[in-house]
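thought: fold this chain, then report.
action: predict
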Amino acid sequence: MNFIEELKWRGMLHDSTPEIEAHLESKKCIGYIGFDPTAPSMTIGNYVQIMLLRLFQLSGHQPIVLMGGATGRIGDPSGKDKERELKSFDELDSNLNFQMEQVKKFLDFEGEHKAIIINNLDFYKDMNVLDFLRDVGKTLTVNYMSSKDSVKNRMDTGLSFTEFSYQLLQAYDFQCLFRDFNCSIQMGGSDQWGNITSGTEFIRRNLNQKAYAVTTPLLTKADGKKFGKSEQGNIWLDSKLTSPYKFYQFWINADDKDLLNFFKYFTLKSKAEFEEIWETNKDNPQLLKRILAEEL
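observation:
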C-alpha cells in the first residue's frame, strides 16, 4: 500500500510538505499523531486520525500515538473561538489512561511495524520554566507564531499566554520524538497545520534535520454540522457512553450525501473492493449504510 496514494483516493489528503512521497518510499518511516485527553473517551471524530495511523501502519510504516498528558493541561486553541476551560489533573489522567486502552483496539502493537504509545508529559516533567523559556521559547519568534491561524483567529476575541504557548509545546513534542525515536512525520487534521509545521521548523533549527507533515481535511456533514455528533450529542468509542445500537444507528441514519465520504474514510476494504461494492449498490444507499455500519 502506498500511503499517500491511499489517502488521495479516500479524499483524506488535505496538505503535505514537499518531498514526503520520496521520503516514505525510501524507507520504513515513523510518524505520529497527538491526542489530548480532554474528554472521558475518544469519539468517532478522533477515529478519523486513528484511521490515518492505521493506514500508515498498513503501508509498512510505524505509528506513534502521542497522548497529551502535558498539552492536555494547557488547551489547544486550534479551531476554538474562546478559551478552553482547564480540566483538573486527576480528570485528565483518568481520561488519558482510558483512551490509551481504547487505542490498543485499533492498531497493531506487535510485529515489525508495532505501534508505540508515548505520554508527552515525560518530555516536560523534569523541566523547569527557565529551561523551557531558554531551550524551547527561543526557537520561534512571536511574529512567526502569530502568523498561524490558531493564534491569528483568536486575536480579536482574546488569547491567554497559556494557549499561545501550546504551539511551542506541540512543536517541541515533534523535536523530542525525532530525537528519541527518529520520528520524521507528524500527521493530524487540517486545523493542526500551523502547529505541525512549527514542529518541522523546530527540527530544522535545533537539530539541523528535515521533518515532514501530512494533514487530513476536517470531516463535516452535509448539513454543515460537525462530524462525530448526533442529535443526542457525541458519538463515543465506548459502549457505556454510546451503546452499540446507537453507534450502528448513527451510520444508518447518515444523510445519503455523506455516505460516499464516510465509506471512503472508514472502510478498511481495498480501493478495488470498495469500488465494486459502491458500483453494485449505488442505487441502494440504505444497503451501503448497513455494509459500512456492520464493518464499523
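thought: worth noting. The chain has a mean pLDDT of 92.
final: C-alpha cells above.
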